[in-house]
What we know:
This protein has helices at about 15-30, 35-60, 70-90. By secondary structure, it is mainly alpha-helical. It is globular.
Amino acid sequence: MVMLDESKVQTPPKERRLAAAWERYLLHVLPKNAPSIQVTECRRAFFAGAESFFDIQNNAYDGSTPEPTEADLQIITDLNNELIEFGMGVKAGRC
């Protein structure tokens, strides 16, 4: 098992927002004594989820209008609602 040394966690620059979010996840979610394989697999899953979200968001806009349409905005609302629902499930022990 690897003990996480919080003093060695660096804050990434602003342009690396996902890296910063990962560092927060690592500090606040994973056990400090998580095995390195768990940290590696969680990091891969974290970034894969971010990539999926990014793909869904980017493909939501059809580009037919200069501004997002109601349908475009509904996709973002649906994503937000799904994330809220999942978070509630985690807190309730269902996810």
